[in-house]
Amino acid sequence: MRGFLTSSIGQPSAGAPSIAVCSIGVPCAAALALALPPPASAAPAPAVVAPSAADPALPGSTRSLPLVPLSDERDLGTAPEQGLYRPEGEHFSMVGVVWRDPGSELRGRVRVRTRSAATGKWSGWQDVETHNADHGADPGTAERDARRVRGATAPLWVGDADGVDVRVRADGTGADDGAVVDGVADGGGGADDARSSRKGGPRPPLPSGLRLELVDPGDEAPPAGAPADAPHTGLQTAAAREASAANTDITGFGALQIPALSKQATERELTRLQGPVQGKPHIGPRPRIVTRRGWGADESLRQRGFSYAKKVKAAFVHHTASGNTYSCTQAPSVIRSIYRYHVTSMGWRDMGYNFLVDKCGTIYEGRAGGAAKAVLGAHTAGFNSDTMGIGVIGTYGSAKPPKATVTAVARLTAWKLGLYGVNPRGKTYLTSAGGNLYPEGKKVRLNVISGHRDGYATECPGKRLYAKLGKARSNAAHYQGR
Questions:
Q1: Are 196 and 215 in contact (CB under 8 A)?
Q2: Are 241 and 299 in contact (CB under 8 A)?
Q3: Is the pLDDT higher at 437 or at 71?
Q4: pTM value?
């Protein structure tokens, strides 16, 4: 997949329209003027979602296919094994499995193999993280309770593929990965072994309405006459103008990036945004951030308007659990795929993370609303208010995160937390909105830079990335001059 912008990004176009400057945490007047009433709760996503009719140049699509029983129990309500074998005819780069009720857990194993569109060869079997309810909007919020929201696995990046084989097995089936499915065998214990293992006692049911999501981020060429790294997205739609206007407090309207600043220039910007600061300001130099337009967000997918918290008191670090096989030039395609999966497949109002960081240390704007503002995300269920979520692209349970990635997390938090006067090395109190680790209303003392697992019982952000958070805290404090 061709990427949009990674290590080299052009400057904002000359002659871009002037937009009124906004203060941190307050939506731009220009953005409000452009905003339309949000749509009513939508029905579940259709089987095929085409590119936006409002901006036909935008690439990408999502294909949603129902899973079928893979055993002699043909009733979807009782079948302990479900899946789908499609050897050809699709085109996608990311896969995931969703189900009807976001409150139901998938207690089992999800495995997938895919066929390369370039070579025609099948990959080995890969596990898909079951994910469940640890990510998402806080309980009781409109975003969490919307009818369109679904339960889901983590998304898995598989590269350019045109065939897929997926198996979902409930805990306790004891089935081997080699079971014969729809006439396709790959050398395991077989369906008879799977059936005999089911005689041992009760098993948890699989969630109802399981569907396979095949996400294509698009790989079309840029418009005629545009530079090779130009994004597909223009500013034709009100939603695109709204998202771009939200960043005009710190960069030009329509910019593909928020450029890096020196520490001195960042301190001057802090004064401009908030007024004179008493004493020496503790803020890290602003890092370069690729905007949503820079990575090619289709703004017609998300819900209109933005939601804000009062401040940013802490940062939660995640891994996307989407695998590490992507190249840095593919990172924008991975992000477009995650965005589509969060919105179209899972039913969220927008990307869940506030920022993303790739393996080369490039930082990307996530949820729309303004990179310097306290945008309310959907990243750590129970602790989204007054926090920001950073999604590190990859899976870091056993893989070591690159040094550039950890450095980027430190630089991003040094700047963003500095805007709100927060010490990255400190601790803060957050009030839980409810979750599996802390009940609703519980005041919890957490590190200002925490891992997802600190707020919710989950493996995220992976053992190896979690072990690097101490380094990120000390480096971020150093960048702030502490």
A1: no
A2: no
A3: 437
A4: 0.82
